Amino acid sequence: MQLDIYRRPEPEHKLSYLAVPAGQPIPQEADNVDWRLVATATELDVHQPLTEYGIDDASHQIEEKGYAITSVTHQVEAGD
Length: 80
Fold this sequence. Notes:
Blueprint: E1 2-10, E2 14-21, E3 36-43, H1 58-65, E4 68-69, E5 76-77
Antiparallel strand pairs: 1-2, 1-3, 2-4, 2-5
């Protein structure tokens, strides 16, 4: 599935990621001025953990909410 990937800084030098189907806007409930687009139309297998982005169960999240997001417990260290 092609996804647009957004990133935002978190406390303690960590990052969260948001994955949205390519070309779709960020759903209103997840819209935040801190999100910055970092990749467009990136082909990723949403049936596998998106470990690079700290996103678990992306296919289920996208089906349920229209986007997938990094869990607070899986935030990525900045600089990785």
